[in-house]
Structures
1.
Amino acid sequence: MCLTQSSNKRGRRAGLTLVEVMIAMTVISVAVYMLSSTITAAMVHSSARKERTLAVESAMNTLEHMRAAPFEDLFTLYNNNPDDDPDGPGTAPGSTFNTPGLAPRNGAQAVGFIMLPVLEGNLRESLNIPELSLPRDLNGDLVIDDNDHAEDYNVLPIQILVEWTGSSGEGHLVISSMFSAVQKELR
């Protein structure tokens, strides 16, 4: 009789109970969920980083193209008026650009925008745009006025704005710069 009881005890402990199996399945399910969440988050983060890198490269390339252009033509090359382009209407890059790999935001026609201190098509130094350090004397006459300085500017503040919709949502990048006739002469 002693032999039968000890083999029964061993038989019951040899397998897992239903409760133990359910606990093991719960632990495994939670672990799989956490792993898949981590992988998904890493993929979204990687995609967002790639989109931001594209935006930065695009903005920097635009700045380099602007640096390569004749300083006296910068305003007419990069404003939003195609009629004053130096080589004839519609020949200049203009105030917008697109970037392969980035989709425009909110139905816009472009991803990138070049912001100049313009009011009603005129280059103004009296505008209140702190992001462009304005108001500011653009032509060096020591007077800040409401005149159009498209023909006589010595400094040109710009801001490049890149806005896109990507796999990780909406993205936004702003880069500001200041071009100067003095810098161009030093090269």
Note: The mean pLDDT is 88.
2.
Amino acid sequence: MKIPAPLTRASLEAKLGAALAKRSRRALPTPEGVVEASVLLPLFERDGDLHLWVVKRPDGMRKHGGQLAFPGGKRDAEDQSPFETALREAEEEIGLPRQDVNIAGSLDDLVTGTGFVITPVVGFLPHDFVPRPNPAEVERVHAVSLRTFAQAASGTFPRIGYPIGEDFLWGATFAIGRHFVALVSDLGPDDRSL
């Protein structure tokens, strides 16, 4: 996959939002026993390139302990949409104010082997911000260049992904990131469709 250069917030935000709005998103039903969840792909510009915030879950967590993930989690009863779930979880996990996120749209749902249907939500931040990780849910936070997801992956099945500092990004987060980068790479200078 090849990401167009330069890839800045200004060059992508309007084009991506329009493209996500007009594409047919794959929304999956949530059978009994499967948990609805949302994650936020929080895009921000740093050093002239787009990055995403990715969190490392504490090792002791019952589900997904020690794994890298986009901020997010299961839907609460009061959440009116996947957008609300993603924004609420990002605020709880890394202190990202909901009002600072400009939602561009959502990607296709993804089913995990751990019993979740995840709706990935794409949002742009107007500026870089300093995460304040909630230690109950987040051990550390990484700023990961979007271009990372366009690189050749490493590892062996089922742990295929990318080394991120001392951690390794794989699984659902790897799949969501790769899917998103494939959509972005399809957006040429005059191509407004996904």
Note: Helices lie at 9-22, 82-94, 171-185.
3.
Amino acid sequence: MNRLAAQFKGISDPIRLRILNLLAHGELCVCDLIAILNLPQSTISRHLGCLRKHGWVMARRSGKWMHYQRPPQPPPFQADLFSLLDKECITDDQARADSNALAARLADGGSSCGRDCS
């Protein structure tokens, strides 16, 4: 039960849920998350650290920037919760706004990982 409780703790914050929603669109640089969520790098990094600790995201370094994505082959428990989260985000105003902001950023030539990450 402790492992299950830790898994839920890993996603039990609105900012972490917003991050997971954005990562449903693919790998993103921290600079993308900073721009979309309009939060300081330290706050984003703290939440990403929690998600990473509990296995909800994977990271890779590119120069000075970190890129994050959902695990490509999550365990069944996580896969089920990702599916539930994705369905819920379709009807959530904040999640839709975040997704639209990301789409606009990428279409405008903003990162992932372009001019903002230099």
Note: The chain has a mean pLDDT of 91.
